[in-house]
């Protein structure tokens, strides 16, 4: 088909402006960033538009090839292989898909933070392969099935394929369709390789199956090969994804940028702008607590691969106010639920409340209002306990905090919150 | 005419529903303009589809010069040399006439530019240059047939296989298509399948009569008409029809 005719007659041409607008709306308005827009998060964001992009591209491909089917093309005894002629006819649909991906990227990239050196091509690879795979599948079904079967199958099927697993259990099912990339990743985390392979293998299998459907002449053979190929890819992907959490990330490794203050503050390179304000607030918090006799770690850092429950770490948005920074810095001193809670039959009763009261006391001891607390439950009791502790001399406060902290970390008994006990 | 079928068998369906259309079939198409006559269900379309390599025989082989459709490496060259007008020609939705003909050329292996240029020539040969920019879906039945012929010859096929090119056309259009076939046969080998016997004596060099998968007659028009005695006041077409009916029987 002459290129001009291929483009002029393809629905891809008319769908492109609509897809651009909808993808922009989806990523800019309907689905705000969950984490700070690091480069990795920006590269992963197009996955959030995948259900739209892949559906429209596959639908256009199915329509384009169904036109050739309706034109009785096989009766023209072509010299060129079905693969060659159908790949040419579905090129506009594939380009439409890539325009969708590019729109998603262009919507997110201007908001990124930090240097662009931290490049991870995995999420983009998955999105591009997914769009191509579904476009190929649409091409094959448009060619092999009557239009009144292929079009609804492709449009509804591709859409449900992308949105349903995200709402199903087990949770790792969602990673087969790339849903895990939508919320990738906080600055201290990188995607688990298993997410990459699982979400890549499935569209590869679907695209491979579609190619086999087009490549062979014998219906039984090509159907069998296509089903086996797609099925095998999905099974391997499921095996890879089994056990992945809803948040399929692993802590990030690499060097942080540090400021030798008191305490030493370390952040990831993307957050270097946070270094000075965090160091200022951390010094203030450390001074306040040391004045009460509370031991404060020498180092405050963002979360990383080697962070343990004993470390002092924080996570903050790049545009956080000083008070918000202080809040997350103080939160980092709250004794974390230790691993023994998972192996020793769960948390002892009252542990979570003890963490909340400890946080409220730390907040009060560093200049905050104990009633100004993110958890609204049982504010009266918490405030009363904190006021009683704050009424103690400095040494008494430090001892109370030390006892609560040790009890939470030991996880063998309910922490005692009453300062008079 | 270099296309030959040797020992070809072809059936539709499987098991107890299997229906043989051709069995151990041998035929060498003669050169020039050949008409393939036969009643509905005689196997004409299957025979042309085998000759065009649209279908493959379950036994035997189809050859054109030294090329055989069974060999994958021959198939491309074979298909380049053969053009087929299918019985039902359809417009590709959205395409204009010249675009559809150029597309047929590209499918036959021409590059896009050559196909675009050849489409113009092919449309001129079927006298459709004035309709080149019309949407193919807006063509009448006769115009669709002519566009189909243009598609079949756009890549300079050596052999044209036309399946029922005049079916469903009014007498004026039929005459036009027949004249076109006559013109084409001056430069290209043509095989036309039909069950209409009118005007055969003026258009075709040789006749093959096919019935129930068997060749009942293969020879010149004169030889066909010689099968029945001449009757005064019978036109040439009626004479051919009488011979044809005698060959295949009244019931067919």
Tell me about this structure:
The complex is a heterodimer of chains A (421) and B (252). With 421 residues, chain A is mainly alpha-helical. Chain A folds into two domains: 3-251, no CATH class; 268-409, no CATH class. Chain A is 57% helix and 5% strand. Chain A is built from 16 helices and six strands. Chain A has helices at 3-9, 11-30, 39-44, 50-70, 82-89, 91-108, 122-144, 147-163, 193-215, 219-241, 275-291, 322-331, 340-343, 351-365, 379-390, 394-410; strands at residues 189-191, 249-251, 257-259, 264-267, 299-302, 312-314. In chain A, strands 3-4-5-6 form a four-stranded mixed beta sheet. In chain A, strands 1-2 form a two-stranded antiparallel sheet. In chain A, strand 4 (264-267), helix 11 and strand 5 form a beta-alpha-beta unit. In chain A, helix 4 (50-70) runs antiparallel to helix 6 (91-108), helix 11 (275-291) packs across helix 12 (322-331) and helix 14 runs antiparallel to helix 16. The longest helix of chain A has 23 residues, at 122-144. Chain A is elongated and about 95 Å long. Chain B is globular. In chain B, a hairpin with a 2-residue loop joins strand 4 (59-64) and strand 5 (67-68). The model of chain B has no long low-confidence stretch (mean pLDDT 84). Chain B has 252 residues and is of the alpha/beta class. Chain B has helices at residues 44-52, 72-81, 97-107, 112-125, 141-153, 171-184, 200-203, 221-225, 236-248, and strands at 3-12, 19-28, 33-37, 59-64, 67-68, 82-85, 159-163, 189-194, 206-211, 214-220. Chain B has nine helices and ten strands. Helices cover 37% and strands 24% of the residues of chain B. At the A-B interface, helix 1 and helix 4 of A face helix 2, helix 3 and helix 4 of B.
């Amino acid at each position: 088909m002459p290129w001009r005719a291929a483009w002029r007659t393809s629905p891809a041409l008319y769908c492109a402006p609509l897809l651009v607008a909808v993808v922009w709306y989806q990523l800019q308005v309907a689905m705000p960033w969950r984490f700070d827009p690091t480069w990795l998060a920006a590269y992963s964001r197009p996955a959030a538009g995948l259900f739209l992009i892949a559906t429209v591209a596959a639908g256009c491909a199915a329509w384009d090839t169904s036109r050739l089917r309706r034109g009785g093309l096989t009766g023209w005894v072509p010299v060129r292989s079905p693969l060659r002629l159908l790949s040419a006819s579905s090129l506009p649909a594939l380009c439409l898909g890539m325009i969708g991906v590019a729109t998603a990227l262009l919507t997110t990239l201007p908001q990124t933070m930090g240097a662009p050196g931290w490049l991870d091509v995995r999420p983009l690879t998955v999105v591009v392969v997914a769009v191509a795979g579904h476009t190929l599948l649409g091409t094959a079904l448009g060619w092999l099935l009557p239009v009144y079967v292929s079009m609804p199958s492709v449009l509804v099927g591709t859409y449900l394929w992308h949105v349903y697993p995200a709402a199903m259990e087990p949770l790792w099912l969602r990673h087969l369709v790339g849903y895990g990339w939508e919320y990738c990743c906080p600055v201290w985390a990188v995607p688990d390789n298993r997410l990459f392979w699982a979400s890549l293998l499935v569209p590869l299998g679907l695209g491979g199956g579609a190619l086999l459907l087009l490549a062979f002449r014998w219906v039984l053979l090509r159907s069998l090969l296509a089903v086996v190929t797609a099925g095998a890819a999905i099974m391997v992907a499921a095996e890879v994804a089994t056990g992945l959490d809803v948040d399929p990330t692993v802590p990030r490794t690499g060097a942080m940028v540090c400021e030798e203050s008191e305490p030493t503050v370390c952040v990831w390179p993307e957050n270097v702008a946070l270094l000075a304000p965090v160091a200022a607030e951390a010094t203030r918090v450390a001074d306040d607590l040391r004045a009460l006799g509370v031991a404060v770690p020498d180092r405050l850092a963002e979360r990383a691969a080697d962070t343990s429950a004993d470390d002092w770490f924080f996570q903050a948005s790049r545009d956080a106010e000083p008070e918000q920074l202080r809040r997350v810095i103080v939160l980092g001193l709250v004794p974390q639920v230790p691993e023994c809670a998972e192996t020793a039959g769960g948390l002892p009763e009252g542990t979570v409340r003890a963490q909340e009261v400890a946080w409220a006391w730390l907040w009060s001891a560093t200049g905050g209002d104990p009633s100004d607390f993110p958890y609204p439950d049982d504010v009266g009791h918490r405030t009363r306990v904190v006021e009683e502790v704050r009424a103690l001399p400095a040494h008494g406060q430090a001892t109370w905090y030390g006892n609560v902290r040790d009890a939470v970390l030991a996880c063998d008994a309910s922490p005692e919150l009453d300062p008079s006990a | 005419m270099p296309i030959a079928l040797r020992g070809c068998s072809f059936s539709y369906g499987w098991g107890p529903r299997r229906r043989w259309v051709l069995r151990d079939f041998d035929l060498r198409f003669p050169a020039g303009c050949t008409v393939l006559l036969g009643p509905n269900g005689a196997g004409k379309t299957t025979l042309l589809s085998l000759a065009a390599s649209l279908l493959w025989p379950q036994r035997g082989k189809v050859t054109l010069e030294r090329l055989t459709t069974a060999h994958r490496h021959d198939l491309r060259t074979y298909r380049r040399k053969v053009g087929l007008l299918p019985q039902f020609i359809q417009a590709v939705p959205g395409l204009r006439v010249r675009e559809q003909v150029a597309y047929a050329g590209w499918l036959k292996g021409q590059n896009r530019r050559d196909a675009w240029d050849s489409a113009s020539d092919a449309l001129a040969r079927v006298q459709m240059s004035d309709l080149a920019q019309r949407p193919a879906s807006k063509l009448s039945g006769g115009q669709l047939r002519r566009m189909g012929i243009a598609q079949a010859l756009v890549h300079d096929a050596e052999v044209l296989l036309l399946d029922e090119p005049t079916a469903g056309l009014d007498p004026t259009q039929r005459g036009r298509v027949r004249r076109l076939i006559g013109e084409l046969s001056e430069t290209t080998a043509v095989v036309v399948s039909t069950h209409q016997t009118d005007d055969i004596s003026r258009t075709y060099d040789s006749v093959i009569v096919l019935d129930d998968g068997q060749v009942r007659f293969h020879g010149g028009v004169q030889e066909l008409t010689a099968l029945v005695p001449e009757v005064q006041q019978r036109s040439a077409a009626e004479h051919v029809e009488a011979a044809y009916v005698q060959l295949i029987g009244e019931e067919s």
